[in-house]
Amino acid sequence: MNAPLTTAPRRPIRELPDELISQIAAGEVVERPASVVRELVDNALDAGATQVTLRLLAGGVRLISVEDDGQGILRDELPIAFKRHATSKIGNLQDLESVATMGFRGEALAAINSIADCAILSRASGLNDAYLLDGRTGELRPVARGQGTTVEVKELFYSTPARRKFLKTDATELAHCIESVRRHALARPDVGFAIWHEGKLVEQWRRCLDTPLADATSEAALAALDQRLSDVLGPEFLAQSVRVDWHSKQTNELGQPALRVWGRAGVPDAARSRADQQFCYVNGRFVRDKVLTHAARSAYEDVLHGNRQPVYALYVAMDPTRVDVNVHPTKIEVRFRDSREVHQAVRHAVEDTLAAPRAAAAAGATTDQTQAPSLFGTTSEASALPTPGTYVPNRPVAPMYSAQPAIKFEAEEGLIGHRVNDISLLWQRSANPEGGMAERFAQVKGEPAQRAEDAEQSAQPSRLPASEKAWSVSRDGNENAWPLGRAIAQLQGVYILAENNQGLVIVDMHAAHERIVYERLKQQFSLTAPDGTVHPLASQPLLIPATFAATPDEVATAEAHIATLNTLGLEISPFSPKTLAVRAVPTTLAQGDAVELARSVLAELAQHDASTVIQRAQNEILGTMACHGAVRANRKLTIEEMNALLRDMEATERSDQCNHGRPTWRQLTLKELDSLFLRGR
C-alpha cells in the first residue's frame, strides 16, 4: 500500500514584532558596512553639511562614525529618529513624487539600530546645547559638541551573527566603504570628505565649491567639478577625458533647461577592461540604470575596440517629478517617465563630444588659413570643408551626392602605387544631382562585399590637380600649425610619418582612411530619405523557413515591430502560439544563422527604440563598405597625398579611431624621443 501523504502543520497568520520587522528591513538596506556608510552620508548631505568625516575600525565592522557640520537635530526630535518610517524629508504623496533629497524612506536608522549598537550625538543650529541619544536604551543626556551631528554604529550584525559570517576581510570592507564615499564626493564638490581607518587618514578631498553643483552652471562650477574628479579619480582621468555639456531646448518654469547632461567622458584610448570607472548621477544621486549605461555605451560604439569599457562621469539634471527614485530600498535604481528621451539625450551628449577630432586639442594648434587639398573632391569641393586643423560640429563634412559607378584602383603605367584621391570619385556630382535617389538607396541595400568588389574594378586613376601639386609652395611657412603636422615619409607602405610642433606623429594609413570613408558614407547614405521615408534593406526569402521556440516577449515584439523588421530585411511571423518563423533575412547575412539573427534583433527591439536598431544596422553595412574602400597597406603615396590625408583627418569626426576602435595616430613628443637616446642625461 502507498504510504499516506504527510502535510505540513498549519501555521497561523500573525503580526511580526517590530524588532523582527526592522531586522528584515535591515537585510534589504544593510548588506555590508558600506551600506551603512552610504545611508549615513546621505543623511549628512541632506542636513546641509559642508564637511563629512568618516571614522572606521576593522573595515567598519567594529565602528562606523559619520560626523558632519549640518543643521543638527533638535532635542525633542532625537528619540523619533530611531523609529521606523520617521523622516523629515517627505510629508505627503506630492513630496514622495518629487523627492529632491538623498534619503526619504525613513527606515535606514531603525534598520541599522536593530542589528548594531547605535548612538546619535547632535547639536542643532542656533542652540548652545548638544545631546546624546543611546539607540539601545533610549537614554538622552547632554554632552559637548559643535553644530552638526555624529552617528556612531558599533559591532555591526552583533544581533544577527549569521550575517556577519558573510563579510569579507577588513581590507575588502574598507575598500567598499571608500568606494561608497567616492561616489558621494564625485557629485558634491561643495562638500569636503575625510576617511579615517584605525586612527589613520586614508583619503581626504577638500571642498572646492561654495554652492551645490546642481545650482551652479557657471564655468567656475565646471572647473570645481574637474578639480574634484581629478582629486578622486586621479589627474590621468582628467587628462584623458573631454568635457560634456548638453542641454535640451525645452525649459522649465524657471527658464532652465528641462534636461541637462554634463560631466566628462573618457577618450577611447582610456578605455579599461572593467567597468569600474563608470559613474552616472541623476539629480545628484548615484544610480545604476540600464538606460543610462546603454546610452553611454552606444555613444562609444564606433570608437571602442573589442570589449573594452569606457570611463565617464555623467550628471543628469531633470525635473524630480519625471524620475521615480522610490524603486529600490537602497535607492540606487531609478525609473524615468520618458526613458527614450533620457537615452537619446545622454547618447547625443557623449557622441557629439567624442566626435570632435582631438588632434587640434592635443597639439594646441592654431588654425591655418591656407586651404588644404582634400581627398574627397576637387579644390572647389574641398572649400566646403572646415579649414585644416579645425572641426565644425553638427555640419556635414561632405555634400550629399548620389551614388556613382564603380571605380578602379589598378596602377597606371609609369606610376608607382595608386593615389588616395582616386576614392574621391565616390563623391563626384552626378549628371543629374536632383535625381538618383533610387540608385543611392539601391546601393545602400546592395551587398557590401559586392560593392567592395566593384570598387576594385579597373579604371584609370586621375592625377592630382595642379592646385594640389602646389602644396609645398602654399604653406607660407605655417606647416607646423597643423595639428597633425606635415608628412615627411611613408614607412613600409603602412605608416605615415609626420612632423608637428610636439615632435613626431605616426599615422596608420589604412585605419585613418577607413574612418574618413566611413564618416563620409554616413553623411551620404541613409536608410531614411529626406522626406522621412524609410527604405528597407534588400532581403532574401528562405526556401525553408527557420522556426524556433519563442518566449511570449519575443512573440509580442515580433508582432509589434513588423514594419521595423521589414526595414531591416527580416520577415518574422508567428508559426504557432509559441513558435516564430523566419521567412526572409537581409541579403548581406543570407549565409548566417537566421534564428540567432532573429533572436538578437528581437532582443534589441524589446529594449531599445526602432530608430536605434535601424541606425546600428545601417552603420554595420557602411562600416563594411568603408573597410573595403579604404586605401590598403603597401600602397606608396606621394608627400602631397599624405598631407591631404592628414588634413582630412583633422576635419573628420571621430578620426582618432578607425571603425573597429583601433587608434589611427600616435604622438611621440621630443621629450620622449630624447629619453630613447638618453639625451640630457
Kindly state the number of beta strands.
Answer: 22
Counting helices, strands and paired strands, the structural category is alpha+beta
- Count of helical stretches: 23
Mean pLDDT: 77
Helix content: 25-40%
Question: Which ranges are low-confidence, i.e. pLDDT below 50, for 5 or more consecutive residues?
Answer: 365-477
**Terminal Cα separation, in Å?**
97 Å
* Strand order across the largest sheet: 5-4-3-6-2-1-7-8
Strand content: 15-25%
| Major beta sheet summary | 8 strands, mixed
Can you describe this structure?
The protein contains 23 helices and 22 strands. The protein is of the alpha+beta class and 681 residues long. An 8-stranded mixed sheet has the order 5-4-3-6-2-1-7-8. A hairpin with a 5-residue loop joins strand 1 and strand 2 (63-68). The N and C termini lie far apart (97 Å).
Features:
681 residues, alpha+beta, 8-stranded mixed beta sheet, 5-stranded mixed beta sheet, 23 helices
Give the arrangement of secondary structure elements.
Blueprint: H1 18-29, H2 33-46, E1 51-57, E2 63-68, H3 78-81, H4 93-97, H5 108-113, E3 117-123, E4 130-134, E5 140-143, E6 148-154, H6 161-164, H7 170-187, E7 192-197, E8 200-205, H8 219-233, H9 235-239, E9 241-247, E10 259-266, E11 278-282, E12 285-287, H10 290-299, E13 312-318, E14 323-324, E15 335-336, H11 339-355, H12 359-363, H13 379-382, H14 437-445, H15 448-455, H16 466-469, E16 486-491, E17 495-500, E18 503-508, H17 509-524, E19 539-549, H18 552-560, H19 562-567, E20 571-576, E21 579-586, H20 594-607, H21 610-629, H22 639-650, E22 665-669, H23 670-676
Parallel strand pairs: 1-7, 11-13
Antiparallel strand pairs: 1-2, 2-6, 3-4, 3-6, 4-5, 7-8, 9-10, 10-13, 11-12, 14-15, 16-17, 17-18, 18-22, 19-21, 20-21
